[in-house]
Amino acid sequence: QVQLVESGGGLVQAEASLRLSCTASQLTFNIYSMGWFRQAPGKEREFVAGISRGGSGRNYADSVKGRFTISRDNAKNTVYLQMNSLRPEDTAVYYCAASAIVIMTSRSRVEYWGQGTQVTVSS
Asked: Are 77 and 3 in contact (CB under 8 A)?
């Protein structure tokens, strides 16, 4: 019933930017912390960024800190991931995630997952 629909992935060159979007339906969006995870070829799924229910709290994996920005628009039931200065090592399937917790972290249990969207960064 709950659905997280992602968009914005694609193929870009190093140093380019992408903006991912994830729109949620059939859930009370403003009580859910949102986040992004990714899984690269040959690697485990890893936490990328999390944002609190109201959008005031944010945290990032060290590998993306300073390059990626997570934000949300509760009126649109949408969370975003702005990715700048992309690197080949950012290549992965990116997953939107939601949990009814204060803020998403690397240790959070995810209640709902999106289908994933491919981001490919060439050198």
From this structure: no
Other C-beta atoms closer than 10 Å to the C-beta of 57 total: 13
- Per-residue pLDDT at 32: 96
CA distance 119 to 14: 12
Looking at residue 78, what is its pLDDT? 97
Segments of the chain scoring below 50 in pLDDT: none
Contacts from 109-116 at CB under 8 Å and sequence distance 24+?
Answer: 110/35, 110/37, 111/32, 112/2, 112/4, 112/24, 112/27, 113/4, 114/4, 114/5, 114/6, 114/22, 115/4, 115/5, 115/6, 116/6, 116/39
Enter the tokens of residue 76: 């649109």
How distant, in Å, are the alpha carbons of 31, 49, 78, 97, 110 from that of 101? 8, 15, 17, 12, 9
Q: Which two tokens stand for residue 88?
A: 């080949």
